[in-house]
Design a protein that fits this description.
Helices cover 49% and strands 19% of the residues. The protein has 20 helices and 18 strands.
Length: 656
């Protein structure tokens, strides 16, 4: 039996296993390298794990192979959610520049400081700076990309805010117009907060309402419609801000109890989110600064702090601009009133010339016509009349001096005086001379102009009364080529003195006739209005300018320049009015409880009061047809009469 060789123990032949192959130095190196790579990758991942900057690793197909915790913290997605998938964080507006960046990365192998924007999982839009590189496999082929994304949103926002605040603070005091200042502010708010629209909503304390003084939106039409809207001070998010004096964020208007949907309905707009902050001055809250529909996600505390800071910066300049605007309006109003005053004085001066000249001539005729025996009897009376007449002449001359309006040539003035005196001289020659006759004539004239002191109201059937009165007046302007239309519907009776109503109707009708050229149309309308009645007289005449229309009731001046007065009979085109008719009607309205309105549009072909109309439609070089003339301008006078019982209650108080 042979002895077993100890050297054979454990050999492959004896055990049945294949013999072990001794490892060469190359294989040992490879093993060491693999261990080293695994160790390096572990250390590399540990490094990325604690890196405060978001990092992710892409495969060549742009799917994720690794995300570090900083990425999860900033953008909100985890590695488990995105591994093997693409990250859905490129905004649509950044896709083109992202493709360009990837092309540069694969062309150059590296990309540095590539500025773009990316979305977070919750919809926020971040400003980021990308640095990246392509990494390669063992055979030096591209294997993927390592990308770092540095969030610079706060840095860029802080820079934009600082620049904007500097720009706003420098610009505010260079922009004097309130509307321009507000437009500048709202445009800055839109850019700073990246919102669809921004508005300055001011408070109308008198009407207890909010109104959009300025709105800037992505579309101009939305901004225009917003500026037409008013809503109560206690409504909406703005109302809650006004009540509390604190900012209010609403990131979902459908869930807010403060959202006031009527504003959206009137503007044809959909507000999804909004941020309102108060505009506070040391004395009061003047309004609300509002931003709507943030594009990059919900409104944040930072947005609220930013808008509040901006509101604090601009509130006082807004109030100051409003005060300046009010002062400018007041100054313009004073200037308009001064112009009105000048016109009144000029008009009175003109009105004094003719009757004074007529009276002077009449007194001279009386003095010469008296028999020698009667002259001693009337000498003191005539002397007294001459003396007082001279005082009136002196007053008229002083008015002329004050106005410094000596533009009328002597020849023209004497011609006008002669024309105006002719009728009176003929009438005086035909009448009996005497002091009592002259006094009575003057008294009757005053009574006719200003009406009886003891006018007694009576119930009047308005349609019937107007029809009869117009029928009586019609022959006075029968020579005028005017179409007169009557639209007299049954209406409740009115309670007013008959002579007062006659003066109102005659004055308005004469005004319409004297302002309408031949070929034009005048309409007289009576209609019921609630429990009362309405009288309306419309004409297709030359109308009045806006300035004259605004001032005519407050300053009782005629609607013509004094030098345009014609020496014509009543009801002639542009016959010179006395200037007191509308004042008298206003006094009647206050006394007898009715309301008078005047709506007038100046003929577009005669924009200035000094522009003259030829007096016949067919002679107008601009509008040769009746229709064209009617469309160019006109006046509508409306008298609103209350019900007879209501007027009866009002009259005693007014008539005292």
């Amino acid at each position: 039996m042979s002895q077993e060789n100890p050297s054979d123990r454990g050999s492959g032949a004896a055990s049945g296993r294949p013999p072990l192959r001794a490892e060469g130095p190359g294989e040992a190196c490879e093993a060491l390298l693999r261990d080293s790579e695994r160790s390096a990758e572990k250390r590399y991942r540990e490094f990325l794990r604690f890196l405060p900057v978001p990092v992710f690793v892409f495969n060549l197909d742009h799917t994720v192979s690794y995300l570090n915790p900083a990425f999860e913290q900033v953008f909100g997605w985890t590695l488990e959610e995105l591994e093997g998938k693409r990250v859905p964080f490129v905004p649509p507006e950044c896709r083109a520049e992202t493709r360009e960046g990837l092309q540069r990365l694969f062309r150059d192998g590296v990309i540095r400081r590539f500025e773009t924007r990316r979305l977070t999982r919750d919809g926020r839009l971040l400003d980021i700076v990308i640095d990246g590189a392509v990494f390669y496999d063992e055979e030096n082929r591209p294997a993927g990309q390592v990308i770092t994304l540095r969030d610079v949103t706060r840095e860029k926002r802080a820079g934009r805010i600082n620049e904007a605040f500097l720009r706003i603070s420098q610009a505010l005091y260079g922009i004097r117009s309130l509307d321009e200042r507000l437009e500048f502010i709202t445009s800055e708010v839109r850019e700073l907060l990246d919102v669809e629209g921004a508005s300055v909503i001011l408070v109308d304390e008198e009407r207890r309402e909010f109104f959009f003084r300025q709105s800037v939106f992505d579309t101009q039409e939305t901004g225009r419609r917003m500026k037409e809207i008013r809503f109560p001070l206690d409504k909406g998010v703005a109302g809650e801000v006004y009540r509390t004096g604190k900012p209010l964020r609403v990131n979902d208007t459908s869930q807010s109890p403060f959202f006031y949907a009527r504003v959206d309905e009137e503007a044809g707009y959909r507000t999804r989110s909004m941020l309102d902050v108060p505009l506070l001055t040391p004395r009061r809250m003047i309004g609300v600064l509002c931003a709507v529909n943030k594009k990059g996600g919900p409104f944040t505390e930072e947005d609220e702090a930013l808008l509040s800071s901006l509101a604090n910066l601009v509130a006082l300049p807004i109030e100051n601009a409003g005060v300046n605007e009010a002062l400018a309006r007041s100054l313009e109003e004073v200037r308009r009133l001064n112009r009105a005053k000048d016109r009144v004085i000029h008009h009175l001066s003109h009105e004094l010339k003719t009757p004074l000249s007529v009276l002077a001539a009449a007194l001279n005729l009386l003095a010469r016509g008296l028999p020698e025996a009667e002259r001693a009897r009337w000498a003191k009376t005539l002397e007294r009349a001459q003396r007082n007449l001279q005082r009136l002449f002196d007053m008229q001359y002083k008015i002329d001096d004050l106005m410094q309006e000596r533009e009328v040539l002597t020849h023209r003035m004497l011609s006008v005086l002669l024309d105006r005196c002719a009728d009176e001289l003929e009438a005086l020659a035909a009448e009996e001379f005497g002091e009592e006759t002259l006094t009575e004539r003057l008294r009757r004239r005053i009574d006719h102009l200003f009406g009886p002191r003891e006018a007694r109201p009576e119930r009047i059937d308005l349609p019937r009364y107007v029809e009869e009165l117009v029928g009586m007046l019609r022959p006075r302007f029968a020579h005028r080529a005017l179409e007169l239309r009557l639209q007299l519907a049954p209406a409740p009776p009115v309670r007013i003195p008959g002579e007062v109503l006659a003066k109102v109707v005659e004055g308005l009708l004469r005004n319409a006739v004297e302002n309408t050229p031949d070929g034009g149309t005048i309409e007289v309308v009576v209609a019921p209005e609630g429990r009362g009645s309405r009288l309306e007289i419309r004409d297709t005449g030359i109308g009045m300018t806006a300035e004259t229309r605004d001032l005519i009731f407050g300053n009782f001046f005629a609607s013509y320049e004094p030098l345009q007065y014609a020496t014509r009979s009543p009801y002639e085109f542009r016959a010179g009015g006395k200037g007191f008719d509308l004042l008298r009607m206003q006094m009647f309205a206050e006394r007898f409880g009715f309301r008078l309105e005047l709506h007038s549009e100046r003929c577009t072909n005669l924009p200035a009061e000094t522009d003259e109309c030829p007096g016949r439609v067919e002679e107008c070089e601009y509008a040769r047809t009746v229709r064209a003339c009617a469309d160019a301008g006109g006046t509508r006078a409306v008298v609103h009469f209350p019900a007879a019982g209501e007027a009866a209650e009002a009259v005693p108080e007014r008539a005292r």
